[in-house]
Design brief:
This protein has two domains: 117 residues, Response regulator (Rossmann fold, 3-Layer(aba) Sandwich); 96 residues, Arc Repressor Mutant, subunit A (Orthogonal Bundle). The protein contains eight helices and twelve strands. Strand 4, helix 4 and strand 5 form a beta-alpha-beta unit. Helix 2 packs parallel to helix 3 and helix 6 packs across helix 8. About 3% of the residues have low confidence. One of its GO terms (biological process) is positive regulation of DNA-templated transcription. Its main location: cytoplasm.
């Protein structure tokens, strides 16, 4: 059973989420501030976190950074902040998706399901492939990346983006295709998501992120992975 950690200081939103999630057989824990959220995450190991940014004791971005210090759990941000800069800041800190308040429950649940799917381990069979660039290796079956003898920690969304590019090695993958495969069919124009996550992948995996050899941008078109 999937366990969800809901973090929000608005009791009516927490109550609505708890009722709707439990009705769909999710197990739910709730926290009303950042410190409680971090403690519950460490104790309960949720499968996905739904996080408000406007918490009473700390900014939600700090909670994201705290979680990303030790876990790759999918984080779905829920916030009344509408500016693109704030969304990018949350995504850059390690969030996997962003839903703006007020929100539709059906859309939120669909995005939550998508976030959980992206975090699921790959199955066996013909997809058991290890790609070696000489600088880092990508194990598609184990969902692991190793660079200089050390595992590289990626968020579920970073991994999914990497996986799509690696499986299409040498081929241009269009912006719309990447957005829809990684974030879902309702996406197609949020190219700022791609810029943020490609920058993160380059920072973590490229020897010189400002002059990438493996994650190539085709301006206005998409991205290409080269071994």
């Amino acid at each position: 059973m999937t366990r969800v950690l809901v973090v929000d200081d608005e009791p009516q939103i927490v109550r609505a989420l708890v009722i709707n999630l439990r009705a769909r057989t999710y197990e739910v824990d709730a926290a009303h501030d950042g410190a409680t959220a971090l403690r519950l995450a460490a104790a309960r190991h949720p499968d996905v976190v739904v996080l408000d940014l406007g918490l009473p004791d700390m900014d939600g971005v700090e909670v994201i950074r705290g979680l990303r210090g030790w876990t790759r759990v999918p984080i779905l941000v829920l916030s009344a902040r509408h500016s693109s800069d704030e969304k990018v800041q949350a995504l850059d800190a390690g969030a996997d998706d962003y839903v703006t308040k007020p929100f539709g429950m059906d859309e939120l649940l669909a995005r939550l399901r998508a976030a959980v799917r992206r975090a699921e381990p790959a199955g066996g069979g013909e997809d058991d492939v290890i790609v070696d660039t000489g600088e880092f290796t990508v194990d598609l079956a184990a969902k692991k990346v190793n660079r200089a003898g050390k595992d590289v920690r990626l968020t579920p969304t970073e991994w999914h983006l990497l996986e799509v590019l690696v499986r299409n090695s040498g081929r241009l993958v269009g912006q719309k295709q990447l957005l829809q495969e990684v974030w879902g069919p309702s996406y197609g124009t949020e190219t700022n998501y791609l810029r943020v996550y490609m920058a993160q992948l380059r920072r973590k995996l490229e020897a010189d992120p400002s002059h990438p050899k493996h994650f190539i941008t085709e301006p206005g078109m998409g991205y290409r992975f080269e071994k």
